[in-house]
Amino acid sequence: MSPTIFAPLLRFLRRSGVRIGALLLSTVLAACGGGVSLGFGYVDYDDDHDYPHKPDWPGGGSASDPGIFLIAGGLCPTCGGSLDGSGSAARFDAPEGIVLGPDGNLYVAERASGTIRKVSQQGVAVTLAGSAGAPGSADGAGGAARFNAPTRLEADIDGNLYVTDSGNSTIRQVSAGGAVTTLAGAAGQCGSQDGSAGNARFCNPQGITLDRNGNLYVADTMNHTIRRIDRNNAVTTVAGVAGACGSADGRGNAARFCEPRDIEVDDDGYLYVADTANSTIREISPSGEVRTIAGAAGQCGTADGPGASARFCNAAALTMDGAGTLFVADTGNGSIRRIATSGTVSTVVGTPGTQNVVLGPLPGSLNAPRGITVLAAGSLAATSQNMVLKLVPAR
What was the pLDDT predicted at 351? Predict the structure, then answer.
């Protein structure tokens, strides 16, 4: 019997949190001597079962106390800049991507200042790499390194960060100690060439994720494509066509995207893409088949409901919890949306159409949230209006 007959059932099981592929992969990895990576480690702590001791965060709130709480940054329209400090004394300058590291700290790509920041469990923000207000492209340790509009970042199990250095059109690596190297692309050279990491070219990439096999996937925003950097540091185009902005489902180069800005991967190797200029959420199967799972291309709106009936507006960031639930930073709507494993979309934080930050009980409101990551079970962290916030959606 053809395996395609079982595809709908397998998809339902996968989106329902049944980790078929993950179970098989763990067996394979064990036979190969564990999760040893040639180029970089694989993520193995996103699931609450894998990483049960995620910290609570300052600002109050628990799974039984939904709301929006301040972790770090200043709550005022002019509280910008880039300043290390604790809680409300810290300052951020257009923070975007955010990720929880295996050490329990949050890491933030601060676009306007050209830095990577670290935020401790106590809400203390420090600069890990780069120098505020000194854009450029230089490898080196800590403050000697230079970035140009870093946008998103990912962490591996060893504490290395992978950064889309968007203004330089490169992919950078930051060690746990803050040493920065260029992993792929060439600074200032916008292009779409596949090949070895040093010869490959990107154009303003903004999204990045790391699968359990050690492959990096990049939302190559201005090329309108999804790229892969494998463990041998070879770059290939997975889906879309460079220079072709559009919206079409299909396999590989038959698919079209328009300015995708973030990407997430589940344990079974399915990719999820915030196709920002289309205001849709897309899925890419391990075989490269692209389909639209939520929203409608070119229709900016706020509607909740089943996938095709839901509407987003310039959604720019994604994260996934251990149960396979997707959370979307719906930037143009100033809200956080949830896509259940059933495909149903709901608004869980913020007031659609209200672009300012109101802390406290839900619904509250957010200002153009641009980064989002899972914290402990039932809570998230997000970047919004020069702040790092803890979000506790209602269950």
Answer: 94
Integer Cα distance of 225 and 219 in angstroms = 6
Q: At a CB cut-off of 8 Å and minimum separation 6, what does 157 contact?
A: 35, 41, 42, 43, 44, 45, 102
Residue of 291, 256, 293, 259 lying closest to 276 (CA atoms) = 259
Q: Which residues pair with 227 in a beta bridge?
A: 218, 237
What pLDDT does 59 receive? 53
Q: Which residues contact 198 (CB under 8 A, 6 or more apart)?
A: 184, 186
- Low-confidence residues in the chain, pLDDT < 70: 1-64
The torsion angles phi and psi of 331, rounded to 5 degrees, stand at -60, -50
Ramachandran angles phi, psi of 291, nearest 5°? -140, 155
Written in H, E and C, the secondary structure of the chain is: CCHHHHHHHHHHHHHCCCCHHHHHHHHHHHHCCCCCCCCCCCCCCCCCCCCCCCCCCCCCCECCECEEEEEEECCCCCCCCCECEEHHHCECCCEEEEEECCCCCEEEEECCCCEEEEECCCCEEEEEECCCCCCCCECEEHHHCECCCEEEEEECCCCCEEEEEHHHCEEEEECCCCEEEEEECCCCCECCCCEECCCCCECCCCEEEECCCCCEEEEEHHHCEEEEECCCCEEEEEECCCCCECCECEEHHHCEECCEEEEEECCCCCEEEEEHHHCEEEEECCCCEEEEEECCCCCECCCCEEHHHCCECCCCEEEECCCCCEEEEEHHHCEEEEECCCCEEEEEECCCCCECCECECCCCEECCCCEEEECCCCCEEEEECCEEEEEECCC
Q: What is the pLDDT of residue 9?
A: 40
